[in-house]
Hints:
By secondary structure, the chain is α/β, with parallel strands linked by helices. The protein has nine helices and eight strands. The protein folds into two domains: 3-21 and 95-227, HAD superfamily/HAD-like (Rossmann fold, 3-Layer(aba) Sandwich); 24-87.
Amino acid sequence: MPAQIPKNIKTIIWDLDGTILDSFSIFTELLCEVLPRYSKKVPTRDDMLLHFHGTMESAVAEMLNHEVTDEEVTKIVAEFLHLQDGYYEVIEHHLFPDAVSLMKQAHAAGKRQIIVTQRGHEGSLRASPRYIVEHSALKQYIDLVIAGDDSEHRKPKPEVLGNLKDEIVAGGLVVIGDTYLDAQLAQNLNSKSILVNRNDSEIAHLDELGDGRDLSLTVVASLSEVSI
Length: 228
C-alpha cells in the first residue's frame, strides 16, 4: 500500500538497522563464519531474523538455545564485532537505495530527520551509528542521531527523544522503521508510522498494537512506495 507523508509533518524519525542499513546481511554472513569456529550450529535464517534486533549477547545465547557458556558468548561476540568493523569501511555498499532516495526528498522538502536506533555508539568503532552517518551519504540528510546507549531510555519509550520530545510532537512527525518497536514508538508519540517489510515473512507482533493500528500504520514493501 503506497504511503504519503503530509506536507505539514516537520520531523521524520528513522530507524537504522533494516530500514536504512542492510545490516541483516552482515549479521547473517558473520554468524555463518564465526559460529562454526566454536563448533556451534548456524541458526536458520528465520531464527536469525527473529533475534536480529536484540543485543548480540542475547541474540547468540537465544539462537543457540542457551546451550552456550557466558565465556563462549563473550568470545563469539568479540570476534563478531571485530570482523564487523571491516564491513563498514565503505558504508555506501550497505545502504538501501530506497531509503537514501526518500531521505533526499525529505531533505528537499525541509523535513528534520532524526535516527533513533537501538544500536549503541560506545565501543562500536565503525559500526557506530554516528560513524555510519558521518562517513556516508546520510550526513547531508540526517540532523541528529540518538543511539541506544545515549540514555537509559530506548525505543519504544517516547522519552528516548529527551528534551526534544514535546517540540517534535508539537510540530508533527512520522516514524519510519521495520519492526513493531518502531510502530509502537509512533503510537506512544500519538503519530503515524510507516514500516518497510523487506522480507517474505510478516512483521512480528503487529497485532499487539491494538485496533487503532490500521489508522496509524502503513506497511510497504519498499520505501520507493512512499512519497512526500
